[in-house]
Design goal:
single chain, 140 residues, alpha/beta, six-stranded mixed beta sheet
Length: 140
């Protein structure tokens, strides 16, 4: 059975690509080379999980490969996990390979919710290897 949900794949506003955002107690930043790497910071909960999903979706639209670095997340609620599943569906719909680099807060929620279906990597460098992307120290 196919997962239920929608994936908004659209051409994002170029002014919104590569720009960090803050949503209350959470924020995100992005590096566009050699792959799109989105780093998440702070507390991701019901108040900002939808905005995080939108931010990730905008960057999925331009990514050949996506790495979500959540090692600096202090709190990660179940709605944030739903946002990652939404991003997973979008990546699958448009053929973008991605990896989640989880920190302790994210790992705890994944374990409790038994959400082992998300593509995970130990660190950003191993995510690059798994995605077939040269790490920044090799590029140039």
């Amino acid at each position: 059975m196919a997962p239920i949900g929608t994936c908004r794949v659209y051409r994002p506003d170029p002014k919104s690509i590569g720009v960090g955002e803050h949503w209350g107690s959470a924020s995100a930043s992005v590096v566009l080379q050699p792959a799109v790497v989105v780093s998440i910071y702070g507390e991701v909960d019901a108040s900002n999980a939808t905005r995080l999903a939108g931010y990730l979706e905008r960057h999925v639209a331009i990514a050949g490969a996506l790495v979500v670095d959540a090692t600096a997340v202090d709190f990660f609620g179940a709605p944030a996990l739903a946002a990652l599943h939404r991003v997973d569906r979008c990546c699958a719909a448009i053929g973008v390979n991605w990896r989640l680099v989880e920190g302790p807060a994210v790992r705890r929620v994944i374990r409790i919710c038994d959400a082992t279906d998300l593509p995970r990597a130990e660190n950003v460098e191993s995510a690059f290897r798994e995605l077939g992307v040269a790490s920044p120290s090799v590029v140039g």
